[in-house]
Design a protein that fits this description.
Blueprint lengths: L1 H14 L1 H29 L11 E8 L4 E3 L4 H10 L3 E17 L4 E10 L3 H4 L3 E5 L10 E5 H8 L8 E4 L2 E10 L11 E3 L2 H7 L9 E6 L5 H21 L6 H8 L3 E6 L3 H4 L10 H28 L1 H13 L4 H38 L8 H27 L3 H6 L7 H36 L9 E5 L7 H12 L5 E5 L12 E6 L2 E10 L3 H4 L4 E4 L13 E5 H7 L3 H6 L3 E2 L7 E6 L14 E5 L4 H4 L4 E6 L4 H16 L7 E3 H6 L3 H34 L2 H9 L4 H35 L11 H26 L3 H5 L3
Keywords: Cell membrane, Membrane, Transmembrane, Transmembrane helix
Pfam families: FtsX, MacB_PCD
Protein name: Putative ABC transport system permease protein
Length: 804
């Protein structure tokens, strides 16, 4: 019986070769997209799974409930107290530097080792890397100890068994206490060396308000996170508020409202890559992954719709076959199983083709996302094959049940062609397909428009030809280094100007604190700078004046602020000049002398945050945070100037260190990459959807028009023109397209409006994508259907009328 069913199946595949090809093509494309996005998702979810203690390690995040914002930092005394007074917390580890680089010297070699990390002494209790040499006990206890990865040990010593060896860093001797092997599995935390921030932690031990550290907590198994959050509020946040607010006339609750944090979050370490609200190591884009996954599933659904439509459209061709089989005793269940088998063969063939296509596309996919995914995860095969089974059931069961319900007597009489049940089913499914197609067209146009808007938006500054050079980590008095260098670098051929600024577009560095005025407090970003920095970056002055090197007060308490700062306090511009505020990083009032136009330094999606600009000598500790020098290069010989700067830097400024530089405009442009990739992926998916939908429409219209050839012959005999016949054959499809687009418009509007809400700077919802979707789909439908309709007008009338 099975052999007979397969024979019948292959006869029908060959007879309806176009439908077979379209079903194979659509399902292969859909399953390929599904597998690629699923692999991307699984890869993102796999981070930190290697860690045997992952079930008990949680990343700490703060929350400001009033503004619904999140932070990834904690102060040292808060973490220390939490471990002492909250029973659910077994241990903690702090870290305040990742991606560190130092010039290290051994007896025989000097090497600049990058990708290091500074962490407190419990680090290896949280991250039990495979130990190669030495011991983890007290490995990070003390000031001058260091643990190395096997890579770093080989770079420095040429071997891995180096515990007890000495390394010189910045004229200080460090003892290697342990050598470890980094995991091969995905992890955001893979330091090539680990040192302790001993001096900083010593200074921060009583600084409750210095949120300088990221933190992981080790929790007891079975800890209730909601209970833990409440204890953190009562025993840590309120405790800190009572200490800080004592004697100020402010209640602890009011203190928390003003300065926060007011809440905490604990995210499992193996979820921070995709699901943390904020992370020291950066968070992934789970929302985009879900959108892409949903779109890939939609393509598979479109392919299933094609299958259902084409199978039901072919029903009249198989009606008599079914009637005969029923007449000779075939059961309905046998017919359903036969049609499901025919569907499964197509789906399984598509599955095999999609596996080959996925393997072929994987290198390009990896390059696009910067990954190294391999097809060695059984979950991919399991879920994709489950999708094949689901598509088989959905796209096979509906037409199988529909076909098996034919009445033998009616089909043998040839009355089936006059039934309207099949027409309603096909039209309904075709409408759903065109609704999805319309959504993709509208969505693709809006995504493209939003990305273009962000890329062309005036950012409020000019970073072209501005080169930023980072100082090495060993700069002891970096402000003096900067002041010496700026005069020397100005003499280099091709240099137009030199300056320094802390708040650099695209730098990723971020420092902020509270700014107090009377009973109100806001958070603002720090923008320590040289006098000329804002003019250097072509920032526009809205009102007031620039800082002046000839005025002593401009290095004592005078500052500039941006528009967002003024607006956050609810001041007018004139009020801003009259109201002095107190920043959390100093103990004296600051006076505003100028207001600058907003300019974007974080990314094109987020709103410009309040920033206060002041000279780096104005506050003692900010002098030690001078971390770069910025150089404006003349346009006539950029490459030559960069080479001269590199030679000067490596010979005279930081011998043995890499020349760590980038152009500011290109660095900021990296923040567009994510959205450009979204645009590219949406365009590819849009094209795939349209191809699948139009091929399905062509095949369906071909089958339906073939069923009307006798009507065409009769009407042509009665004198109907080709134009009238073509319009009559396409009219039904045009009406279906019109209805589908009208239905898709509110759905598309809602979904795309939700997507646009993620952007502080967004386009107004345009009308033209909806109009273009309507006319483009009507035109494409007409072109696709009219091809077959035109062929139908050339029908041989004798062939269809000789028996009438």
């Amino acid at each position: 019986m099975l052999k007979n069913w397969l024979k019948i199946a292959f006869i029908n595949y060959k007879k309806n070769w176009l439908s077979t090809f379209i079903n194979l093509f659509g399902l292969t494309i859909g399953l390929t997209g599904f597998m690629l996005i699923l692999m991307h998702w699984n890869d993102e979810e796999s981070y930190e799974k290697w860690n045997p203690k992952k079930d008990n390690i949680y990343a700490f995040q703060t929350q400001n409930k009033a503004e619904n914002t999140y932070g990834n930092n904690i102060s040292y005394p808060m973490a220390e107290r939490a471990a002492k007074v909250i029973p659910e917390i077994k241990d903690y580890v702090l870290f305040n530097g990742y991606g560190l680089g130092f010039k290290m010297t051994t007896k025989n070699k000097t090497f600049y080792q990058q990708k290091g990390m500074s962490a407190s002494e419990s680090f290896f209790n949280f991250f039990p890397f495979k130990l190669v040499s030495g011991s983890y006990k007290n490995a990070l206890k003390g000031e001058k100890v260091i643990a190395l990865s096997t890579n770093a040990a080989i770079n420095l010593f040429g071997k891995t068994n180096v515990a007890g060896e000495s390394i010189k860093i910045d004229d200080k001797d460090f003892i290697v206490t342990a050598v470890y092997e980094l995991p091969k599995e995905n992890s955001q935390i893979k330091p090539e060396f680990v040192i302790t921030p001993f001096e900083q932690m010593k200074n921060d031990k009583e600084q409750w308000g210095n949120f300088n550290y990221g933190c992981f907590f080790m929790l007891k198994p079975g800890t209730d996170l909601s209970t833990l959050q409440q204890k953190f509020y009562n025993d840590i946040f309120l405790y800190r508020a009572k200490k800080e607010a004592h004697g100020s006339g402010v209640t602890p609750q009011k203190y928390l409202e003003l300065y926060g944090p007011t809440g905490s979050l604990f995210t499992p370490i193996d979820q921070i890559k995709l699901h943390a609200k904020a992370s020291w190591f950066g968070v992934g884009d789970f929302k985009t992954i879900m959108i892409l996954f949903a779109l890939s599933v939609l393509i598979v659904i479109l392919s299933a719709i094609n299958f259902i439509n084409l199978k039901t459209a072919q029903s009249s061709q198989r009606a008599k076959e079914i009637g005969v089989r029923k007449a000779i005793g075939s059961k309905k269940s046998n017919l359903v199983l036969q049609f499901l088998l025919e569907t499964f063969v197509i789906c399984f063939a598509s599955y095999l083709l999609s596996l080959a296509l996925t393997e072929l596309l994987l290198p390009s996919f990896n390059k696009f996302f910067g990954k190294e995914i391999q097809m060695n995860d059984w979950h991919i095969y399991f879920y994709s094959f489950s999708m094949v089974i689901m598509v088989t059931l959905i796209s096979g069961l509906i037409p199988a049940t529909y076909l098996s319900n034919f009445k033998a007597i009616e089909t043998l009489k040839g009355n089936f062609a006059r039934s309207k049940h099949g027409i309603w089913l096909r039209n309904g499914i075709l409408t759903l397909q065109l609704i999805i197609s319309s959504f993709f067209i509208i969505g693709g146009l809006i995504v493209n428009q939003q990305v273009k808007y962000m890329m062309n938006k005036d950012l409020g500054y000019n970073g072209k030809q501005v080169l930023l050079i980072n100082f090495s980590e060993n700069s002891k008095k970096p402000w003096l280094k900067y002041e010496r260098l700026k005069n020397e670098i100005r003499k280099i051929q091709g240099v137009a100007d030199v300056s320094y600024g802390e708040a650099v577009p695209g730098s990723g560095r971020y420092s902020n604190s509270n700014m107090d005025f009377m009973d109100k407090s806001i958070f603002a970003q720090h923008g320590s700078m040289d006098y000329n920095y804002l003019q250097f970056m072509d920032v526009k002055l809205k009102k007031g004046r620039w800082l002046n090197p000839n005025l002593a007060s401009d290095t004592i308490n005078n500052v500039l602020v941006n528009e967002a700062f003024v607006n956050k306090f609810g001041w007018t511009d004139d009020q801003a000049f009259k109201n002095d505020f107190r920043p959390g990083f100093d103990n004296k009032p600051y006076h505003i002398v100028g207001i600058v136009k907003n300019f974007n330094i974080l990314n094109p999606r987020d709103a410009v945050e309040p920033i206060v600009f002041f000279h780096y000598r104005e506050t003692d500790w900010k002098r030690f945070n001078v971390y770069n020098i910025q150089i404006k290069i003349k346009p006539d010989d950029i490459d030559g100037t960069v080479k001269r700067l590199k030679t000067y830097w490596q010979n005279n400024v930081e011998p043995g260190y890499p020349f760590d530089y980038y152009f500011i405009d290109k660095k900021f442009a990296e923040s567009f990459v994510k959205y450009q990739k979204q645009q590219t992926l949406f365009t590819i998916l849009n094209a795939m959807v349209l191809i699948v939908a139009l091929l399905g429409l062509f095949a369906l219209s071909s089958l339906m028009i073939e069923q009307k050839l006798k009507d065409v012959a009769i009407r042509k005999t009665l004198g109907a023109s080709d134009k009238t016949l073509i319009f009559g054959l396409t009219k039904q499809f045009l009406w279906i397209t019109l209805i589908a687009v009208v239905i898709s418009i509110p759905i598309s509007y809602y979904l795309m409006n939700e997507w646009l809400k993620d952007f502080a700077y967004r386009i107004d919802m345009p009308v033209w994508p909806f109009v273009l979707s309507l006319f483009s789909l009507l035109l494409l439908t007409f072109l696709v259907v009219s091809i077959k309709a035109f062929q139908a007008t050339k029908v041989n009338m004798v062939k269809y009328l000789k028996y009438e």
